[in-house]
Amino acid sequence: MEGNVMTIRRSLATVAITLGFASAAAAFDMPPPIDAPEIETDGIASTTSGWYIRGDLGYNVSTESDAPTYRNYNFATDSYVTNSFDKHRFSNNVTLNTGAGYQFNEFLRTDLTLDYFGSTFKGKADRQKPCTFFTGNGAYGSCAYKQQDMTALGLLANGYVDLGTYWGLTPYVGAGAGVSYVKWGDVEQSRLCHNTNSCGGIDFTAADQDGADSWRFTYALMAGMSYDVTENMKLDFGYRYSQIDGGDMFGFSRFETAAGAFGTKGKDKGLSRHEFRTGIRMMTW
Fold this sequence. Notes:
There is one protein chain. The chain has helices at 2-29, 132-135, 254-259; strands at 50-64, 69-74, 79-84, 87-90, 94-103, 108-130, 140-162, 169-184, 188-193, 202-204, 213-228, 233-244, 247-251, 264-268, 271-283. The protein is mainly β and 285 residues long. A hairpin with a 4-residue loop joins strand 5 (94-103) and strand 6. The termini are far apart. It comes from Rhizobium setariae. InterPro entries: Beta-barrel_OMP, OMP/PagP_B-barrel. It holds the Pfam family OMP_b-brl. Residues 1-27 form the signal peptide.
């Protein structure tokens, strides 16, 4: 019995040794492992932190404001009456934007931008008052048409939240605040004296009024999407709503000033803009 056990043990040992040598031989016959590169499945890998510069071209699809106001001076009583324009509108124009910023990580970034745009204001004011002083006849009532160009240069600090990258596309939201330098050109004005409630009748040209300029608080809200063109370059497609505080538009004419008027004649109530922009962001270092 003991001899049979010993025989079985020797057989098992022989099998184990044989399998060990076979495994070692197979290992020596296998080729060395190959390091395969990692493959990005979500498109081009973008840089997640660093400084960047940007440039944008946009268009104001809507420039809006409540009706601007103007003051009429009565030299006989040395008093002022404030009125609003009966009709008004602002033109829509191309916008330019440039700036620099920093990407903190894949979700947060901030930048400082310069924004430029222009617009033209056109307004109509219908007033019932004698025109004899201006025309030498008995016409009553006057209607003034005013046109005035303006430009604005804004400096804003902005912050953004990127909402993740999917197939190279990164949606984002943002907000900014700063100041805008608003410069109004001189008023181009014509008047009509009439005897009815509608504008018409005797035409005469009134003295032009000088435009005003001022610094104003400005804020903006943004939303959009960027696309990774390369690791360091992104195309940016966005919408921006911005609000510029109200301020002075134009002063009194030389005739009114000589009669005793002083200060500001016209004021706007601020500008709100709806703007679509396309631009490029470049990571620099």
